[in-house]
Design a protein that fits this description.
The protein is mainly β and about 250 residues long. The chain is about 0% helix and about 65% strand. The chain has a 21-stranded mixed β-sheet that branches. A hairpin with a 2-residue loop joins strand 19 and strand 20.
Amino acid sequence: VTEKIAVSASGSGEARLTLAFGAGELNLSPGGQELLVEGTATYNYSELKPSIESSGNNVHIQTGEGGLNAFPSFGELKNVWDLKLSALPMDLTIEAGAYKGNFEFGGLALTGLTVKDDAADERLSFSSPNKTEMSILRYETGASNVKLSGLANANFSTLIFSSGAGDFSLDFSGALQRDATATIESGFSNLMLVIPQGIHAVVTVESGASNVTFGPGWTQNGDVYTQAGEGPTLTILINIGAGNLTLTR
């Protein structure tokens, strides 16, 4: 079954959108016109039919009536959401289980972004600047393979990233418009930070168990790694239990 999803924000001011997605594939991109969110949901069991609740500017869309627990224990499941988001000011929350995610947020106006999932194979990108200042970008995941790119374009004040084991890439490409702080906690993992040349960055690593590799342009003083640059400063604090950390451009 493929059905349309079309939800408007009926109130004024900032919208709050929550997507509670169990498992499957979730695709998000800009392009919603007057609607807050629009697109399609494709599924092959009635238990997966999306449930939508809307009250003013608060919109909650979830997989079935049970949200994250709605996934039936049947084989050959299909659950795919393809959604376009409006450029209206929005606080966005995504809650998911084990899933594949493709998120493009460039050109939106996200005032806040929270992603919480269990085991993810995800690509999240800000290919162009966020149209408003974002207070907090929070990402919490388990054992996953995650790549975040264009993070400077997110225009966040604070980034909080926490993960279990896995492979993680945080790419701070884009236009850093103001001082920003990132806190990263990870278990046994391979963690790569991509910070383009010209961004003034200070990275402090609070872990003696990890292997730290850094390329040209970086200087080390104990547990502090610095890249010279002009303009706003990107300050990053890392606590990695074990594994590998790579600093690159």
